Amino acid sequence: MVESFQELAIFSCYPMGLLFSKTTPRFVVTGPPNPREEGTPPPKRLNIVDFIKDERMFSLYVQSLQAMYHAGEDDVCSYFQLASIHGMPYVPWNGHANKKPAGTFGGYCVHRTSLFPTWHRFHTLAFEQVLQSHAARIAEEYTTETAEWRQAAAEIRQPFWDWAAPGQAVLPDEIIRLSKIVIRVKPDGKPTEVDNPFLAYTFKTIIPGCAPPFDKWKTTLRHPKDNQSDVDALAGALAENQESLTSQTYFMFTLLSTWPGFSNARADGPSGNPATSLEGIHNTIHDLIGGGGHAGDVSVAGFDPIFYMLHANTDRYLSLWAALHPDVWVTEDHQADGTFAYPDNATIDIDTPLYPFPNSQDTYWTSHDSTDIIRLRYTYPEFDGLDMNDRDALRKGISKVVRQLYMPHYLATSLSPADRPITTANKMTTIPTVTDTPATPTSDLAVWEWSARVRVKQSELPGSFQVLVFLGPVPSEPAEWARAPSYVGAFSAFANGSAARCANCIERADAATEGYVHLQGAIARNPAACSFEPGDVRPFLADELGWRVQMADGTPVPLERLPSLEVMVVAVRLAMAGGEGEALPVQVGEPVHHRDVTSGRLGGARLE
Predict the structure, then answer these.
(1) Residue 483: closest CA among 296, 125, 134, 239
(2) All domains in the chain, ordered by first residue
(3) What is the pLDDT of residues 126-149, one digit of tens each?
């Protein structure tokens, strides 16, 4: 049944200062109402590149975001309160009761746990719900084209930023660069120049207890320089990591088939398949946006206006991955990091309440509730025309999407249906044809894929940092590292500068995190490499592979300060499996750890 436009705007938010009781209802997270007929897909979350081209939706979003900014900091549905769920100021949200003894509260964050994807799904949904309700209210104030404005408000959803799609790592100027943007404002819809709310959020008061330098900045900043955002540095950092992000995303979809490996960046025991987790890729994006600014620090990242575009895409990746792996969802884990909501060493699983997001006045959402995005009243463009109940057709359809959007160019060449050199380098060998690969490919149809596994305890440095990986000479000037031809990609630790007050951070201080930087494209481009075979690649990597560490703001870090750092070369054989246009790589055999390639160097592999 279609819900009326009037119903779209009805919800209540209550100031945090109120005493919550049985007679004071809390804000219930439902997602925006679905304006469409029952049995038809709900509105789509759009790519930000497409979203900004829709005049009405973009105009409504800008005005809605401004309204959320202007709401009082004690309002449950203000931008401030919604952002603070992710980190500081570490206060209860929406009447959620303290489950731990007084004085031990350290926030709601669930990074490096199996609940990372689903917890953030509902955080984004709560933001989307509030934003859409503002859009519905604002649409009622237009005096021309009223039906069109109401329809746009009903359909509006949180746009996503697909940083891994070729050419899309750098956000549009309307989001990161223009100080003024033109929108059609109420009541007459006249095009008007307004301040760009995507550039920064302005704090009404500085959050007490923030670690320096966040205790002095009155607005969110990106790559801060002289207390201003450096947009050129931001755009450069994103562009320099485009190829690495695309490769990491592709292999996340195709090589990770278990929930522990896919869901979070925690390194527990031996490595699984050589690909970076959803959380690990997300960590890199946070650090690249922040560059020493707010987005790169867990405690204040939620205040950067890009945050929800980032997390809508993280959620989109979760949806695509789930379509490829329909039998896999949240598995049992242990929450060593007690938080405001969870006691120390709690067992967490698919039925664990995802605090502080209520689905009624008395109950909370769980991961079990989060498997169906249609029920949550949104979808993504990639699911257009696909039957969400036909698992096989859905998997095939999304396989095509993953190939088209993220398949690295070197892999498309080296594992192509026709025999051809794997690169333009004359000395590279020819890879066998893999057309009609069987469901379980054999080794004679496989090619070696090489990567650098990075493991480290992120608590060893006071804040977020990156491990940069190179193949070839490393510039002596740190400012030139990411711009060097030898730069391959980075692994990021997304940390909390206010860790002393974060329960998650304190209790996970000794835990390691890990991710992978894929070397294949850089090997293929290097004329010194002869093939992807171990006999050629091992000595090449022993001579050429290097790494450096820098804080999120670019400050270089001596390797001696990271005694836990371990960079190890990993190789795995891949072959394609699947029908024409939908084939994805399948791992043949177990990964091979080439520890001796980097052992004996600071931050190199430890011999077992």
Answers:
(1) 239
(2) 5-198+298-394 (1.10.1280.10)
(3) 999 999 999 999 999 999 999 999
Give me the DSSP letters along 151-167: HHHHH----B--TTSTT
Q: Is the dihedral of CA 434, 440, 442, 448 positive or negative?
A: positive
Cis peptide, bond prior to residue 197, ω within 30 of zero:
no
Q: Are 577 and 437 in contact (CB under 8 A)?
A: yes
Q: List the structure tokens of 499.
A: 């860790």
Residue 298: which of 493, 470, 161 has the closest Cα?
Answer: 493
What CA–CA distances, in Å, run from 229 to 219, 304, 467?
A: 10, 12, 23
| Cβ–Cβ under 8 Å, residues 203 and 219 | yes
Supply the pLDDT for residue 336: 63
Calculate mean pLDDT across residues 68-94: 93
* CA dist., res. 229 & res. 234, Å (int): 8
The region that residue 466 occupies, defined by phi over 0 for left and psi between -120 and 50 for alpha, beta otherwise, is: beta
User: Alpha-carbon distance 500 to 384, whole Å?
Assistant: 46
First-last CA distance in the chain? 63
Chain segment 529-550, per-residue pLDDT in tens? 788 999 999 999 999 999 999 9
Output the furthest CA–CA distance in the chain (Å, rounded): 76
| Residue 177 tokens, joined | 């660069």
Alpha-helical runs (H) found in 447-586: 503-507, 520-525, 534-544
What CA–CA distance (Å, rounded) separates 219 from 228? 9
Q: Which residues of 389-405 are buried (b: 16+ CB within 10 A; e: fewer)?
A: eeeeebbbbbbbbbbeb
Contact call for residues 346 and 332 (beta carbons, < 8 A): no
Q: pLDDT grade, residue 2 (50/70/90)?
A: very low
CA distance 199 to 197: 6
d(CA 504, CA 86): 12
In this prediction the pTM is 0.91
List of residues 6+ apart from 461 with CB closer than 8 A: 493, 495, 551, 557, 561, 562
Return d(Cα 505, Cα 462) in angstroms, integer.
11
Q: What does the block give as tokens for 140? A: 């009622």
Segments in 156-230 forming alpha helices (H): 173-176
Distances from the Cα of 292 to the Cαs of 224, 478, 517, in angstroms?
A: 7, 15, 22
